[in-house]
Design goal:
The protein is mainly alpha-helical. Helix content is about 50%, strand content about 10%. It has helices spanning about 1-30, 45-55, 65-70, 90-100, 115-125, 130-140, 160-185, 190-205, 210-225, 245-250, 275-280, 305-315, and strands at about 35, 40, 80, 85-90, 105, 150-155, 290-295, 300-305. The chain starts with a helix and ends with a helix.
Length: about 325
């Protein structure tokens, strides 16, 4: 009996020692410094899914973190405002269950250029405009037209790299879904070519209803080798809201100047709505070659020949 008790005592002592060492090891592990971004995105789902998502984002996490996170409670889904970038591992895990980021709304309107949008973001979110542009150039080969006009909920404290990545990811996903519905596939180069045409439509059309008509003018001119000669193409970049003058048309040597150069610009003029893209893909069937704005209605008067167009111009001069 005494031998048996001594044996049980040894087994108990061994188990206790192992448990104590394990507990001390976990405490040490959780007290180690942990570097985090100030803002973290946590997906909806299980702890395993959260840990996997953090791993993909470059965080050094393990099954121990998953175990502790289950013990601490339910992690908050969405944008988490961590705040500090240097903290302990247990502080990081605790913040995942208690903190939630304050969100701020930013709106990209259809027809706005990326440079003007970045200027807006820099002011509203206290970010660096040059860094936004630099991060954008790292992630896409196109100068313009890569963002989908939308009202976005952005966490305060987000940095330039993460913000650009977020906007591009959302916009690409939206483009993929739209292209799948229309074409049954997504070809990025083909889609962006439509975005280029759509950007001119977006700048020129007075309404969504006019977009297919403006598209028909663009395609009709291209078909006969006629220059587009559209003011909207010169509202690129920081010239987004600049009035186009005869002097500007004479002096602008960029590929956006469709008064000087034939065909479409090699880059989009602005960021575009799905309505503009649909108009570029499905233009109205017309023989229109000209259009001009009616001062009294704000809409455009479309003409098939220069004579009718000149008459419309003369009529507007009298108003």
């Amino acid at each position: 009996m005494i031998k048996m008790l001594a044996r049980y005592h040894k087994i108990f002592f061994f188990i206790f020692t192992v448990f104590l060492l394990f507990f001390i090891g976990i405490l040490y592990y959780l007290s180690l410094p942990f570097k985090s971004k100030s803002v973290v995105y946590i997906p909806q789902g299980s702890v395993s899914k959260i840990i996997a998502s953090l791993g993909k984002e470059g965080y050094q996490v393990s099954n121990i973190d998953a175990f502790v996170l289950r013990f601490l409670g339910q992690a908050q889904a969405g944008w988490i405002q961590i705040g500090e970038e240097n903290l302990t591992r247990i502080d990081f895990l605790r913040k995942l269950t208690t903190a939630k980021a304050a969100l701020e709304s930013i709106t990209l309107i259809p027809g706005e250029t990326t440079l003007v949008f970045f200027r807006q973001l820099a002011t509203q979110l206290n970010l660096n405009e040059d860094k936004l542009l630099s991060e954008y150039k790292k992630r896409t080969p196109y100068l313009e037209g890569m963002f989908y006009p939308e009202t976005y909920k952005i966490p305060k404290g987000i940095n330039e790299a993460f913000l650009v990545e977020l906007l591009l990811s959302y916009s690409k996903n939206y483009s993929q879904q739209a292209s799948q519905k229309i074409f049954g596939e997504f070809n990025e180069k083909k889609w962006h070519q439509y975005v280029i045409t759509a950007s001119i439509i977006q700048k020129e059309a007075a309404s969504n209803e006019e977009m297919p008509l403006v598209a028909s003018v663009i395609y009709n001119r291209l078909k006969i080798g006629m220059k587009l000669q559209m003011d909207g193409t010169l509202n690129y970049g920081l010239f987004s809201h600049t009035r186009i003058t005869p002097e500007r048309i004479r002096t602008d040597e960029s590929f956006y100047n469709t008064y000087k150069f034939e065909g479409l610009p090699r880059e989009a003029v602005c960021n575009v709505s799905l309505n503009a893209i649909r108009a570029a893909i499905f233009p109205a069937k017309t023989n229109y070659l000209y259009f001009m704005r009616d001062k009294s209605t704000g809409k455009h008067i479309f003409s098939s020949n220069l004579n009718d167009h000149n008459k419309a111009v003369e009529a507007q001069r009298g108003k």
